[in-house]
Amino acid sequence: MKTMRIKGLLGVCLLLPGLAACGASGTASSGAPNAARSSGAVTTSCGLDMRVPAPPKRAISLEQNATEIMLSLGLADRMVGTSYQTDPVLPSLAAEYKKVPVLARQYPNHEAVLAKEPDFLYSTLSSAYADEAAGPRADWKKLGVPAYLSVHDCETVKLTADEVRFDTIFNEVKDIAAVFGVEQRGEKAVKDLRVRLDRAVREAPKNTGAKLMWYYSGTTTPHIAGHGGLPSTVSKQVGVDNAFDDIRQKWPAGNWEEIAERDPDVIVLADLTRGGDGDSAGAKKRFLRANPVASQLDAVRNNRFIVVPGSAMDPSIRSVSLAEELSKGLTALYG
């Protein structure tokens, strides 16, 4: 990607963990959750009406976030396929994951999905519905197959939520539970997540005044968290500042000179498993300590790092764990 100055950033396509495709991630005003509320009704997902005539029995999750949401709801027996595993599956879901056929290492193509005769498709990323992947949701609608997409990454920028909110994530979990007729499981899952989130916020140290840089990937051109993404939301929840929250873009590409001007107090390192340039937390630390500019950052000189799983930075069932890890990390640094 081309290096851009932070003050003048344009749209940047962030490579999500293991993914080379991006969906829309603009600054639209739509923060409303998708409206899949009951099977047997016409429901809406990212502006596309779809009919779910009965609780699906042959569903396919097209990437890991969707897979883990479905498995968390106990839906392995309703799934005829999954794909695009970017990280080790959550240990609590590993046994159920083994029950679901893996259709492709990355996204399966349209023919591979069609061959499984699905009655429901689900993805939290619009790239799953690209022409070269499973194919557009509108085409699946013509075949009578509802295809759900998270409001955090609609194909159309104006329909994409401008900020990641925990209520929207929780509503998506309840949406999927409603589609499959397991509303009580959805309510319980969300209740448990809320308890964990409240505990993380309560236990975080107060009034630290810390300004954070969320460092996702890249070295020469670092990708950091701006406004609207999950790190921005979690920072506010826990009571600290995202040093780059004035940048109205979820994942801008920056440069070290301007980062040095802001000199964040703490750097949160995404630990990614995909093996790219600067992906792992260890690789990031080595770069930061060796780079002439980055090595002079106050956070680097004083070893103020917090390491979090990269996958937790996406809106998903893992999102609460990001707040938990940040809370623990700040407690270790500030007491």
Automatic annotation (TrEMBL):
**Short name of one Pfam family:** Peripla_BP_2
Q: Which residues form the signal peptide?
A: 1-23
| Domain Fe/B12 periplasmic-binding intervals | 58-335
SUPFAM superfamilies membership: Helical backbone' metal receptor
Any idea which UniProt keywords this protein has? Signal
Q: Which family does it belong to?
A: Belongs to the bacterial solute-binding protein 8 family.
* PANTHER family named in the record: IRON(III) DICITRATE-BINDING PROTEIN, VITAMIN B12-BINDING PROTEIN
Record protein name field = Iron complex transport system substrate-binding protein
Organism equals Streptomyces demainii
